Amino acid sequence: MRVCIVGTGAIGGLIATRLAAARSADVSAIARGATLAALRARGWRLQHGDTTLQAPARVADRSEELGEQDLVVIAVKAPALPQVASQLGPLLGPHTLVLPAMNGVPWWFGHRVAALGDAPLESVDPGGAIARAISFSQVIGCVVHVSAIVREPGLVQHVKANRLIIGEPAGGRSERIARIAEVLTAARFDVEQSADIRRDIWYKLWGNMTMNPLSAITGATGDRILADPLVREFCSAVMREAAAIGARLGCPIDQTPEDRHRITTTLGAFKTSMLQDMEAGRPIELDALVGAVRELGTRLAIPTPNIDALFGIARLFGRVHKLYPE
Questions:
Q1: Rounded Cα–Cα distance for residues 144 and 203 (Å)
Q2: Which of 77, 160, 204, 271 is catalytic?
Q3: Rounded to whole angstroms, how far apart are CA atoms 154 and 46?
């Protein structure tokens, strides 16, 4: 299988290194700047504990250099996706599959959902540009339960967890999901083939749509956010609204917010991805994590006063710090 990784940060670098080292796929990647130079000079490098996994890297800064692929893994931050999607054309053939290993609500989430009228989600795909660049029929849904950080360009540290959930956006099982699962399993990922990937996406979002922006705004780690009873209850209020939206979309949540808080508490003093982005001066993924949920609530006529407050405060914070567009 010819696999191209688009986005060679923490998650993209981890997936690429594992695949290249396992030789379970013919791996290439699109990279830029210092990361491109580092990969060309030293190959893929992945630290886990006291060990470093290395593998040769085939990289380019233009998709035209790599050509048509069997699978394209998109591992960029959500704000970068519209521009990235417009440059994928040379990688995409009639049978190419596209797996977005990204946080939040994906651009395709509302497609073929009767309650939403099949209209694009403006918050994550303004004008439907991403949907025009990547056919819904080529998309494979994915939920990433992996924690990793970039130590330096081309060097990723795997922190914890190793789980990838993949599935057909339209639901059900398929041969193409099984093929991708086989390749990823050979690269030592714990792969789950989901019959309802939308529900898996919503469940992860339900847990991190509060922690991410609150950590970025306050600078607090996860344990401190949930240790404050007022902040904890605000998180619960947001999650109750999101659960009501999910129920209307066929993505019911079987837990209470307190159930999820207890699970999150076991992670200890962790830094969310949005807090890491804020500290590094990178754009925050606010629209994919909160704005899209707010849009879905509006389109379903479900009141979301707490989600609105979270989005407004986080948006203002992002604009003040030049991390979110005016």
A1: 12
A2: 204
A3: 9
CA angle 218, 223, 224 (to 5 degrees): 40
Helices (H), the chain: 10-22, 33-42, 81-85, 129-133, 175-186, 197-218, 222-227, 229-248, 257-265, 273-280, 286, 292-299, 305-320
Return the pLDDT at 115: 85
C-alpha distances out from residue 47 to 51, 136, 152, 177, 223, Å: 6, 35, 11, 28, 25
Contacts of 45 (CB under 8 A, 6+ apart): 17, 52, 53, 54, 154, 155, 156
Q: What's the pLDDT score for residue 84? A: 95
Residue 160 CB burial class (10 angstroms; 0-12, 13-18, ≥19): exposed
**2-195: what fold?**
Rossmann fold (3.40.50)
pLDDT at 8: 95
What CATH class has 199-320? mainly alpha
Name the residue among 7, 15, 1 with its Cα closest to residue 162. 15
Mean pLDDT in runs of 10 for the chain (326 residues)? 96 97 95 96 95 96 96 96 95 97 94 84 94 96 95 94 96 96 97 97 96 97 96 98 96 96 92 93 96 97 98 98 96
Q: Is 271 a catalytic residue?
A: no
Question: Residues 6 or more apart from 36 whose CB is under 8 A from it?
Answer: 59, 61
Type of residue found at 133: A
**The predicted structure's pLDDT at residue 96:** 98
What pLDDT is attached to residue 299? 95
Domain with CATH 1.10.1040.10 in the chain: 199-320
Q: Between the CA of residue 94 and those of 48, 71, 123, 227, what are the distances in Å?
A: 37, 11, 28, 51
247: which residues sit within 8 A by CB, 6+ positions away? 253
* CATH 3.40.50.720 domain extents, the chain: 2-195
For position 118, what pLDDT does the model report? 75
Q: Where are the alpha helices (DSSP H) in 101-196?
A: 129-133, 175-186
